[in-house]
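Predict fold of HEAT repeat domain-containing protein; 207 aa.
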Amino acid sequence: MLDKLATNQNRNDELPNIELAEELIKTENQNGINEIVNGLKAKDKRIANDCIKVLYEIGEKRPDLIASYYEQFLELLVSKNNRLVWGSMTALSQIVELESRNIFKQADKIVFAFHHGSVITVDNGVSVLAKLCKQDLKYEEHLFPILMQHLQECRSKEVGQHAERIAICIHENNQRQFVEVLESRVEGLPAPQQKRVRKLLKQIYNI
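Predicted 3D structure, encoded as tokens:
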């Protein structure tokens, strides 16, 4: 399977990786997927980068095919290769509902990457944490305060998008805190962001 990766075809675009992901989905080739997962350890950074691309492309359509590799994705959250970090957080955001118990056990790795990662890592980290909160009240107890602190402190241009990602775990018992944080931010946002947040607040008021 590795011979089909973009790097091994001397390609600079992602199309071969996307096509490989589609092939693995269509054939449900678990051995092939396992080979791609092993490729994450390749000494050639380009190979590893191609492999994570293939895996989260699979995860977007068939998260069940990559869910069992949650350990590998969690381990890569502390990689020195930023591409592997945000790619793994993307994959985790796709499989977290399927492996919530096991992923929550190592939530410290997610929180670390969430606090120290790139923009894409943080974006997908919000989704991972929100989906965990939605799965279990115990998870929410530990992780919801982290999301609220982030929403209070994140950049203005992130408030709307991240609030929308968090909204999936909002219910009548945590609604008030969520609304209070958003209302404390909304006046300081640019007009398009204000509109986005106010639209979300209207939806939340109806919970």
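The mean pLDDT is 96.
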